[in-house]
Amino acid sequence: MANEKKNEWPLWEVFIRAKHGLSHRHAGSVHAPDADIALRHARDTYTRRMEGVSIWVIRSSDIAASDPADAGPIFEPAESKVYRHPTFYVVPDHIKHI
Amino acid sequence: MYTTEMSKNPTRQGPSAAEPPELLEAFEARVANDEFIEPKDWMPEAYRKTLIRQISQHAHSEIVGMLPEGNWITRAPSLRRKAVLLAKVQDEGGHGLYLYSAAETLGTSRDEMLDALHSGKAKYSTIFNYPTLTWADIGAIGWLVDGAAIMNQVPLQRTSYGPYARAMVRVCKEESFHQRQGFEIMMRLAAGTPEQKAMAQDALNRWWWPSIMMFGPPDENSPNTAQSVRWRIKRETNDELRQKFVDVTVPQAESIGLTVPDKDLKWNEARGQYDYGAIDWEEFWAVVKGEGPVAKERVKARTEAWEKGAWVREAALAHAAKQAARRQKEAV
Ligand SMILES: [Fe+2]
Ligand SMILES: [Fe+2]
């Protein structure tokens, strides 16, 4: 019986732009039969206090995600590349504007 | 509240034989280090089960919690009060939805949780099995019930499971108006005619004990507390939270001239806290088992709403399927 989904509306992930100049950010999820209703549910659920100026919704099943168990191999290559940061380079104190 | 332990017997909490000790150890270390656990991370089965139970009970409480207050929307004494109450009840619906979504990230489904609620299998906060007899009850609920919920939910913003913690951050932001509007109702009534003041006092008399029971059984009778605290699912014990609530609420009652209905209540100078009287836990367990004055009515109202909405849900699905088929045909 676990995980039985009889006839439930699919799940959508909701992203909200809090104000112009900011990117959309994950707010939560809603169930809805289609994109139009997902947008309406997202509005009622996540923007009752002017939390946004724009909403994106996407079906949760359409999101591809990295596996946290692979976080090591995925992100480790960047760890040793300290020369990608400005602090890696030594510039004498009297050199300005650099 | 919403999150009190409502099963009298401890659930199986030991590590299962199938769980690799090195994963378990790494998990325990992360939690002890106050790191957040996210949906796809490895977690012990007992942790997952405890969370599903706690978050879904919390969600059910928000949803059932709409009923006692919804009962007064059409009878609110002014347009202002009506708009406020409507907004508050809508917020509670939102809280339920944030929480159901958080529970779903753990592998349960919305349908499964709703089935459990409608079949009477799932527990929800005992507080909602008491009736709302007068307008003052709406004041008492906002002030005391939401007040107790806030006390419980604030530490949960740092609970170890990420989606639950994030839902709590959102909920806590919205709760404080709930409590203030309730206190405002009580304050006005307490300053009104003798009849209005008596109505406020009567509401306080009826809601005080159920409110402080909301924190759940005393620590020594709360079988899962230790494990939950260790896993940072719970951050403070039932008794700690209850004491905090009593300490902040008693002076609020006094300040508007109402009396907390506890003859043993007195300030303990040495502890710097209030001592309060013995709680009738028999009543609590009876209400948990569904013997509250309006328990049957609550579940019936929920079930009816769900069943009456079935045709809307089905029609919306059929419409979506038809639109999708049309788009596909046009694309060919
Ligand atoms: Fe709530
Ligand atoms: Fe609330």
What's the short story on this structure?
The complex is a heterodimer of chains A (98) and B (332). Chain A is α+β, with helices and mostly antiparallel strands.
Task: Explain this structure.
The complex is a heterodimer of chains A (98) and B (332). Chain A has 98 residues and is of the alpha+beta class. Chain A has a domain at 11-69: Roll (Ubiquitin-like (UB roll)), CATH 3.10.20.520. Chain A is 21% helix and 20% strand. Chain A contains two helices and three strands. Chain A has helices at 35-46, 71-79; strands at residues 11-17, 25-31, 54-59. A three-stranded antiparallel β-sheet of chain A has the order 2-1-3. The model of chain A has no long low-confidence stretch (mean pLDDT 91). With 332 residues, chain B is an all-alpha fold. Helices cover 64% and strands 2% of the residues of chain B. Chain B is built from 13 helices and two strands. Chain B has helices at residues 21-32, 45-64, 66-70, 79-104, 110-118, 135-156, 162-190, 194-213, 225-230, 238-255, 281-291, 295-308, 310-331, and strands at 266-268, 273-275. In chain B, a hairpin with a 4-residue loop joins β1 (266-268) and β2 (273-275). The radius of gyration of chain B is 22 Å and the shape is globular. Chain B starts with 20 loop residues before the first helix and ends with a helix. The mean pLDDT of chain B is 92. The A-B interface holds A 1-9, 11, 28-31, 33-34, 37, 44-45, 48-49, 65, 67-69 and B 38, 40-42, 87, 90-91, 94, 97-98, 101, 104, 107-112, 166-167, 170, 174, 313-314, 316-317, 319-320, 323-324. The complex binds fe (ii) ion (2 copies). One fe (ii) ion binds at residues 62, 92, 95, 149, 171, 175 of chain B.
Key structural traits:
heterodimer; A: 98 residues; alpha+beta; Ubiquitin-like (UB roll); three-stranded antiparallel sheet; 3 strands; 21% helix; B: 332 residues; mainly alpha; two-stranded antiparallel ribbon; 2% strand; globular; binds fe (ii) ion
